[in-house]
Amino acid sequence: MSSWMVDRWYVAAWDAEVDRAPVARTICRVPILLYRTLDRRVIAMRDACPHRLLPLSMGIREGDSIRCRYHGLKIGPDGVAEEMPLKTERLNTAICVETYAIAEKHRFVWLWVGDKAKADPALIPDFWPCSAEGWTFDGGHDRVGCDYRLLIDNLMDLTHETHVHAGSIGQPELMEAPIETASEGEAVTVSRWMPGVDAPPFWRGALKQDGPVDRWQVCHFVAPSSVIIDVGVAPVGAGATLADHDRQGVRGFVIDSMTPETGTSCHYFWGMARNFDISDQGFTARFKRQQGGVFAEDIEILEAQQRSILANPDLKLRAYAIDGGGVRARRVIERDIQGGPRAPSNESIAA
Amino acid sequence: MSSWMVDRWYVAAWDAEVDRAPVARTICRVPILLYRTLDRRVIAMRDACPHRLLPLSMGIREGDSIRCRYHGLKIGPDGVAEEMPLKTERLNTAICVETYAIAEKHRFVWLWVGDKAKADPALIPDFWPCSAEGWTFDGGHDRVGCDYRLLIDNLMDLTHETHVHAGSIGQPELMEAPIETASEGEAVTVSRWMPGVDAPPFWRGALKQDGPVDRWQVCHFVAPSSVIIDVGVAPVGAGATLADHDRQGVRGFVIDSMTPETGTSCHYFWGMARNFDISDQGFTARFKRQQGGVFAEDIEILEAQQRSILANPDLKLRAYAIDGGGVRARRVIERDIQGGPRAPSNESIAA
Amino acid sequence: MSSWMVDRWYVAAWDAEVDRAPVARTICRVPILLYRTLDRRVIAMRDACPHRLLPLSMGIREGDSIRCRYHGLKIGPDGVAEEMPLKTERLNTAICVETYAIAEKHRFVWLWVGDKAKADPALIPDFWPCSAEGWTFDGGHDRVGCDYRLLIDNLMDLTHETHVHAGSIGQPELMEAPIETASEGEAVTVSRWMPGVDAPPFWRGALKQDGPVDRWQVCHFVAPSSVIIDVGVAPVGAGATLADHDRQGVRGFVIDSMTPETGTSCHYFWGMARNFDISDQGFTARFKRQQGGVFAEDIEILEAQQRSILANPDLKLRAYAIDGGGVRARRVIERDIQGGPRAPSNESIAA
What is the pTM of this model? Predict the structure, then answer.
């Protein structure tokens, strides 16, 4: 009775979060252990020794293997036992721990949730700005005490910025720009095109020139649980359009990928990819700190929302005009789950 | 399966606890938001935005309305939407949050729990000493981790003072005075009349004269969940009787009103109304501090009792002679609930 | 649906833990109160006043009786009411609290869990080294957040010392000595005989002579939930054998008795009895501190194991060669329980 898609890739970690030392992380209710082999491959296995279930993350890595800290069963990177607790006992290679398909791409470690036989790296969401030439990308990771879908709702509707981020990035004029919501297959897009406006200071600094700009904000829901927000400005007359604004100005992508931990908690991987000032590490560090502060404002709201949902079991979430993007994203998820096991939802659409 | 009466007024707050800023309080398992309009009316509404359920108590009051801090839905004091999150969206006045009937009387804010159509201010318990001419009233509010009925038991039997309040107000001689328990309709009374006794220091100070006194303690259970204790002394010969002791001496009422929060927690509103030294604010402040200290002794016992009830599910509460008042009060509650849905009770009467 | 044997004696406390002041302790899910009478008998009763269930452990001992701190009901050491809350109320000696059979032996206070009529002191496990002439015994008590059977598993297999106690007592050579597992009736034994080995420093100091030794470690499971480990060394040639090593060298018994608190927590009573340097109190104190430190390493592992069992409900504990002793001990327990109500087990044997 899970509320997430299966047979999908989910972000398990930032690339830099996983190194030789074991990292424990619960993903879609399963305790998982992550570490890298000497040749830098990421290994993911169930974080429980097949012998007496002590978390293997408490164990000791020996070469590319993990030795359990309770009785010393040694497990290789393929999950198969390599040494019994008692050296005199004959090795039983039927003893093994479940391992998971892993792929590393676009600065993230992706874990396949579902039937391992179906894991295909070609299915990894295309976060191209995170790894393309001429771009730079950095960000952070927070554990949030809410259903991951509340974060999708949040990100597919940027009008919340006015209220939640009143003290930081909220700009009332965003509320006045018309939005367009579209979907095709599993993709959902919420677009805001603001032609001939004053550039806010951040974007003027990025563009390094004065004068009116065409500005855009395009939120993309990417199944199973990411939101990529294409943001930027181009000088008026440079020829940028909603359909084509790749080379006319400065551009960034707010990257948000949510991985369920339990039904009411998730991992939030967030960051910013940009195609300007890409060698300015001071800019990168300052922006990451600012973005972390903005998302802390969201987290306070989202965790309060989750507690309120649990405290008001007779009430349902309602959707208004601004929620079109989130509603469609939830439909994509639910449709997919219903193909498999049925997911309960407290969403009622009153658009 | 609640253990409290419905279609009744319950104390939601002291009058002074509620002002312009929103106050969040769970009453009978429902998260409630309280605030005052500019003309000082108290508004009570479900503490969850009808849009995405963020607690409205996290919102911002604008005039007499509340604006949700997530997407900015604005709700009027009648609970009806006044402004959509997106200014361009047509207002849908079908969007509303549940509001509750409120009455202010005897220094308390009362909230109607049940069918709003039946809310009748005439049904508010008559706490006359809290607001009568020639009387003064003050007190406090504590959240207690116990079933509210354990507090009723506690207050309908003052013999516990000897043990629980040994270090403060406990007086062994109270144990020797005979008590009389009576009930009529929903009213239950436990009376103790002590003729020709020495006045304890507190009462001698109040009376401002020496010599023997007639002393009384009369506990009144007032449905659905209050206990009012009429206490005082009159000089011997002044003609005071159990039936008539209103003007012969000095008199106070210990006011106790318990409002269920959950099945195992409640709000405890307590205070003292008195008809002597009514302008002596120093006395009022000192007495409130003392009363708070005495009730803290009760709270320690009551929360331990609640934990023990849960830890010993095979045991039942038993009633002895001293518990007659509490037993009858619980019967009043249970009889009323059984008219509605059946309430479980772990009370077994062995009087 | 309990996972422990009933109609058995369990350790409730060290003798010195119980004195005149009431001690509260939950044993096999039942809140229990322990104290001593003036003539030093230990009394055990349900820790809930029969009146309103306040823990009697919050009460005041008066002579050999306990007076409840709520309304003053006085309970004698036989569990029968001796005084009502109201002195004028006729004493009802049908009012009583459940008492439990208690026996004091081998430095422990034992409590009979089950049908009191069957309590027979002859059934107390024979911890003779804890009280025999020429021996000394001391130890400690910890509350551990795990099923008591995980501690039995732990103690019936000492190979875990190499990994869990790598920084303290772990010795890899123990892993190489062959073990023999035997059982008869409810007794289970895991024996390790190491002839002609170097004595480790601890044992050389105890033996007070150099030269090779015969060394032994014999783990005895003693139903319902103790493990006694016979350890020691004798000079080569002194004639010690696995069957007879009582007088040829120095010997100690690691005493471990586990008493269930809930299904996932227990009391751990541990200590060391020895037949050498028995008057050296400094040795006793130092060894107890060291042993406490070693067991703290186990507790960290055991509580992590318990959490992992709960977090991985689809996985089962597996048994390898080293687990033979624990597996047989669990079978003894399960067989006994199945005679009564069926106990669930997550043990799957793959030895």
Answer: 0.92
